[in-house]
Amino acid sequence: MWKYLLKRVILMLITLFLIASLTFFLMKLIPGSPFSAASKLSESQLAIMNAKYGLDQPIPIQYANYMINILKGDLGISFQFNNTDVTQLIMNRVGPSATLGLQAMIFGTIFGIFLGVIAALRQNTWLDYGSTLVAVLGKSIPSFVFAAMLQYYIAVKLGLLPVAFWRGWEYSILPTIALSIFPISIAARFMRTEMVEVMGSDYITLARAKGASSFEVAFKHALRNALIPVITVLGPLAVSLMTGSLVVERVFAIPGLGEQFVKSIQVSDYPVIMGTTLLFAALFIFIILVVDILYSIIDPRIRLSGGKN
Amino acid sequence: MVNHPEKRFPKEMFEPAQIDQSLIEKIEKPSLSFWQDAWLRVRKNKAAIVSLVLLILLIFMALVGPFLSGYDGEVQRAEHSNLPPRIAALENISWLPFDGTLTSRNGDTLTPYEDKRIEEYYWFGTDGLGRDLFTRLWEGVQISLLIAFLATALDMIVGVSYGAISGYFGGRVDSAMQRVIEILNGIPNLVIVILLILVLEPGILSITLALAITGWTTMARVVRGQVLKMKNQEFALASKTLGATDLRIIFRHLLPNMVGVIIINTMFTIPNAIFFEAFLSFIGLGLQPPDASLGTLIEEGFKVMLLYPYQLLFPSIVISLLMITFNLLADGLRDAFDPKMRD
Amino acid sequence: MKNILEVQDLTISFHTFAGEVQAIRGVNFELKKGETLAIVGESGSGKSVTTKSIMRLLPKSNSEIKAGSQILFEGKNLAELSDKEMEKIRGKEISMIFQDPMTSLNPTMKIGKQIAEPLIKHQKVSKQQAKERALELLKLVGLPQPEKRINQYPHQFSGGQRQRIVIAVALACNPKILIADEPTTALDVTIQAQILDLMKNLQKKIDTSIIFITHDLGVVANVADRVAVMYGGKIIEVGTVDEIFYNPQHPYTWGLISSMPSLDTMDENLYAIPGTPPDLLNPPKGDAFAVRNEYAMNIDLLEEPPMFKVSDTHYAATWLLHPDAPKVDPPVAVKRRQNKFPEMNSVKGGK
Fold it and tell me: In which broad location class does this protein mainly occur, judging by the first location in its UniProt entry (chain A) (predicted)?
């Protein structure tokens, strides 16, 4: 177990290093200086700006500085907000994004699992078809279209909830729903498949043969076994939430990481883009690792054998 | 225990019966080719068939739609800006959005056609620059589909070859190739796509490329798994003993046996690519004006959603339809091709 | 001896996309107290469906026990009980052992808990008492170190051990009937013998009646008192072990016996029954076995044979037993056995 964990952590660090390098060099490939495109700076002003941000040094030195700074937790200085630390900018924005992401993840998976279990237990009834419909729509309708729809009909037309911004819990309801529709659909589909398969297995028949009621069969025997594989989709789901948050935050004008990221792309603020990218990548790798460990803790079949490949 | 009624039967009844020997070994089901079998299964899936029909319709409209309204999608007419949708035959049906009126935010009904004395009918209305949205919508669908199909084709070519080579040669080649995939999978797709597009400048080609670069690993993994499973089966070994080259075995014997999985995978990649293109446009990394794609139309529509909701409505409906039909069709194909479902 | 279970005119259909599959077409048999009844037949003959229907374990969504079917157990018709009433019978009065021990235990539940579950459910004992009883049961089925192993998960046991655990689960509440659905088929031959021995010993100790399903006649000879042979959703011959093994009457039973390898048939080719099982979507008219039967007569293709009585305990559904039927020569292997039958019969009946 420990050996496996160590191996995973090392692989994780290597990947992060590669991503950081990749980000750096790709940014260097972009033609021109970040100041040349939009501004009307003269040659000398440009040189001053470049010197200020260390862009006049040879690339290997810039690279070394960049990597050392990352280790120190310093992601550079933003171009768009003069002299602001990227790390600071990101820290300021993490709150709303994390709240939104967690809410959507928890609500999405729980509700999705619930839908999936119901569909599996009531196969080929309207409950099943209904949950399948929700799943297909949730998987198909792009999150930004869904977010815009919610905003227009529920907030603007009906006035039930705030249209935008981030000033209290009720402001997070619509964005959470918009963001969780994808996890709901994926969790529901996956759960239904797993549950149907488990309900057809021999040990469920044996449980029924023991005289267990259908409630006991479903929730004492089947649910746990069907839930274990669902853990494997939690990682990809969390990642999809990062993608979703970029657009949902934009639709609802929420001052989160995603909204800042989109703005930075539009004004080519490379340090912020690079910093956020790195953060996303690190989070992604970390989540996948956590999910793997969780899986091996929960499933007794792989608990002792030390990870499954 | 039930017992026999001593019924009498004519003598000849107890003579040996002539039994047609062919009946004994009769095969109950007619033999079907792979495609016939798959088609029979898909046909049973109503959702998939409806999706297929809708999809064909949408693709047809993407090709023909831009020529139907008679307006050019790039001609700007400032005096015709932001006109709501109006269709001649449907304009008197009030619950349809085609009556040429708008509702302002304070609830008043606006009639821009009458106000500006415009005789023309713009079926899906016009945008802020007075361009016909009907034409632009189908042009956008065209571009979105083009990007999706191109990216998926690239995906398939790279993924299938990579997976087949990795699985077939095995050993060190395989483990090296698998490490590459592992590391690529360790990086979130979103990050790669965004970085690539920043570097390459947004455009059809760069978006396609970015999508393909991140998408092929799934296909490679699936194909590798299949090759690993099949390469030691008798038909492949037989061909090897007959002196077939490795390439011939891979392409003539192994790949045709995985057409099913490859198709299923492809069918799931296409909606994914459509989504990602729109997503990129929505965060400002999509096509640049005046090119239209579903993503850019949605993004432009979103900006004026409160005033002119129809500009967001139509592209949203079309992209949702495209995604739903592709997903349902892919689901149907997966059920049809899945060997586990075969009885 | 008293009948503990009587099955009368059991008819079961499955509704599939292709149509109605008539899996069981009027099955009658009884189970006596303390006896072991073996039900023999090839796959698809309906033996598993029959026993699953006794437990009412068939999927509700697509299976149907037809009206008029009777499964009488202690005066109740199990075919008509509600789900709640059935739960009180399953695991308590009637319990079941399945074919594949590798899949029939819940992989995420400790085996102790799995054994204790029916005890807590049916006998309302405390957790502690249930655990003690589980330990006893594990000792009874011969699992070494039960104190330690009671807290382990199924994947930590071998196939044979798991089948012992499944047997312990089945015996937890001292059921009156134990249904064993091919309990040894998935096991290695050496383990098979151990499990069979275990079941025979346990039956002596706890006096349950056993329905033993198998397609392996060798196993039948080992464990059963009586044998019912199923074909095409019907019982076509039923009798004591000796009657079925040494005086079979139905051509299908002949086929089964001839295809069984034995030491004195070493130099001969093994017999194989030609053809494939009948299509129960459109069951054939007359005798379902007729098209595969080299002794088939015209009447076999037209009329379904009734059960003809051979002795008080022995019945067979074949027109060959009709007084008008010609005398036929059974296969050599069967004849050899039939020659031994009279002398055996004079000694004793039963196993």
Answer: membrane
pLDDT digits (tens, 9 = 90+) for B203-215: 888 888 888 888 8
Chain-chain contact of A144 with B298 (C-beta, under 8 angstroms): yes
Q: Which residues on chain C are in Cβ contact (under 8 Å) with B4?
A: 306-309, 322
Topology match between the domains C3-224 and C229-344:
yes
Give the alpha-carbon dihedral of B126, B130, B134, B137, to 10 degrees. Answer: -100
B29 vs C: CB within 8 A: no
> Is A86 contained in some domain?
no
Contact B2 C28 (CB under 8 A): yes
Which chain A residue shows the shortest CA-CA distance from C97? A206
Asked whether the predicted pLDDT for residue A34 surpasses 50, the reply is yes
User: Is the bond preceding B290 in cis, omega lying within 30 degrees of 0?
Assistant: yes
- Say what the pLDDT of residue B10 is: 76
Single pTM value for the model:
0.80
Q: Give C214 to chain B, closest Cα distance, Å.
A: 23
Distance CA C68, CA C80 (A): 10
Q: pLDDT digits over C125-184, tens only?
A: 888 888 998 998 888 888 888 888 888 888 888 888 888 899 888 888 888 899 988 888
Fold entry, domain C229-344: Rossmann fold (3.40.50)
Given a cut of 90, whether residue A111 has pLDDT beyond it is yes
CA-CA distance, B80 to A3, in Å (whole number)?
69
Q: Which residues of A touch C121 (CB under 8 A)?
A: 210-212
Radius of gyration of chain C (CA): 21
ipTM given for this complex: 0.82
User: In CATH, what is the architecture of B49-70+138-341?
Assistant: Orthogonal Bundle (1.10)
Which of A122, A197, A204, A210 is best to mutate for the C interface (most C CBs within 10 A)? A210
